[in-house]
């Protein structure tokens, strides 16, 4: 990772609210088919040689249909992206998120789930059958199962609605798992939003929020 505290003047740091509005506007352009494709040229590459100042960190699923920069119509240096199958939390994820908030001063964390998530589907099937998948996939399923249990307790059976519950659970767990992130949220330095991406429409729907921002 590049040292992001150069001696020259720094770009203005957005508030959590401003960062959310920027992402929301980009997603609206994507949904409408009017993407602007900003910050994707040679000049932008040159601006980022010595530093980066992303205005959001997107913690999303690794699914190939969930390309964050495309969905939110942003470019190079705009978002710090962390991806795991089923957006499961582990030490590496928490370290990456803490880096984005405490070192890069990112004002917004986005937890991004999506329709027809294979990892959530596998966790639901494992819960229903009482059997676990082999290999390291088991680790993914074990981390998602608490969200499946919470969904079932609320009468939720469908994969897509279970994804929504998993996004909500993940968003809450970030602060519970990391005192650093909890402090940043409490101090208003960052906020957490949970989004569920609808594959057909291309829309990222807000399903949860923590911190100082208005939906």
Structural write-up:
This protein starts with 15 loop residues before the first helix and ends in a 5-residue tail after the last strand. It has one domain: Beta-carbonic Anhydrase, Chain A (3-Layer(aba) Sandwich). The protein has a five-stranded mixed sheet, sandwiched between helices. With 215 residues, the protein is of the alpha/beta class. Helices cover 44% and strands 16% of the residues. The model is unreliable at 1-9 (pLDDT under 50). Helix 5 packs across helix 6, helix 6 packs across helix 7 (159-177) and helix 7 packs across helix 8.
The CATH superfamily label reads Carbonic anhydrase
Rg, Å, rounded: 17 Å
Class computed from helices, strands and strand pairing: alpha/beta
Net shape: globular
CATH architectural name: 3-Layer(aba) Sandwich
Largest sheet: 5 strands, mixed
Helix content: 40-55%
CATH topology: Beta-carbonic Anhydrase, Chain A
What is the terminal-to-terminal distance? 32 Å
Describe this structure in a few short sentences:
Helix content is 44%, strand content 16%. The chain has helices at residues 16-32, 42-47, 68-71, 91-102, 118-129, 137-153, 159-177, 179-186; strands spanning 56-61, 79-84, 108-114, 191-198, 203-210.
